[in-house]
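Researcher: Good morning. I'm working through a list of sequences from a screen, and I'd like to move beyond sequence-only analysis. For each chain I'm collecting a predicted structure so we can compare shapes side by side. This is the next one on the list. No need for commentary yet; just the structure.
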Amino acid sequence: MFPPLETKKKIVILGCGFAGLELVKELKKILKDSVEITVVDKSGYFTYNPGLFDFFSGKIKEKDVVLKYEELFKGLNIEFIQDKVINVKTRMKTVNLENSVLKYDFLVVALGSQVKYNHLPRVDNKLFLFDSFNSVKKLSTHINSLMESLKNVKKIETQNKKLTFVVVGGGLTGIELVFDLREKLYKLCRKNGIKKKNLDITLIQEGKILEQLEERVGIKVHDYLEKLNIHVIVGQRVTRVDEHRIYIGDGRAFATDTIIWCGGVMPTKAIFRSDLTTKVDGGIIVNNYLQSVTNPNVYALGDNVHFEHEKKKLSKTYLHAIDKAKYVALNLVNEITGDGEKHGFIPKEDKFWFKLGSWNGIYFKNDFYFDGFFISLGKSLKDKDKYRMIKFRDEFKKLKKNLR
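Model: Good morning. Structure tokens for this chain:
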């Protein structure tokens, strides 16, 4: 489409989740080999994060949620570096990695987020995150081991032995997880001949349940949790964790075997160490074109962006991340070639579609929401192909074919 540029511009993309991967695909489709593209990610594979819940539940396999970048990028003339980003120095147009330094002409920061952990000490083999394929796999192994140990206890001891599980965080991730956890544990009980009364599941939320949605939705979910014998504690912050207990703000402490932390997300530490202009929460401040307000050759995507539309902060969903990537691709093409025009990002309406176990779900858009079994079923059918990575594999195969 475009004649070769006299000097190839170098585009460095930090992070290759939904936003980064979509951007790579769009840039290669439009610019082909007229620019140099370098992609940096701390992992060697893309993870379809919405599929982690079904992977945790045992409904799908590893190959359905992870895809190696080596496989995706093979034959595309893309430099992929698996490394950790330390910081960005925009005045020198450099990115400092753990093992090297990169120069760029244009930079796209799509590093995603990290879990908010309240600076509490980590407790090995007791406290788990739910933020990556490896962390979910580790959690599953831990739970299977616990249930196996209970199976081997003498019957009279088993009757008095309780396994306790605490999920911290009542946002979208914590809510979907606690229902999947309950189903997983009940399934293991049936398999190992353990009675359900030996289980205790608690959800702790600092604010209200699903406070990013309308209050009526949170109340409905709260009631449903208690109906299923999941203990709910709201308005309490976790203040301390040790090898035996978890402590909350009102002074109560609970003995627990397993803590799963879903206490929200924040931009990665690399953003705080960089000289980009950010909000207090660490989000990179961008203009309507998704450029840094102080560094126009830097674009930002995904969870590490602070973007307001009509004075409302945009929700951090993977659907918004993919949409942003399409806009950034067009704007980068305009910057590099002078062709076309810049496009101001106009976000689509927020919608949330999630399951509450296998038998219930919620679809929320604007002021309307629906719940029930058919919502859960529809969500499962909608995600079926995406879990198998068919869409991503096919799009990159098609891209490679067109570039030959």
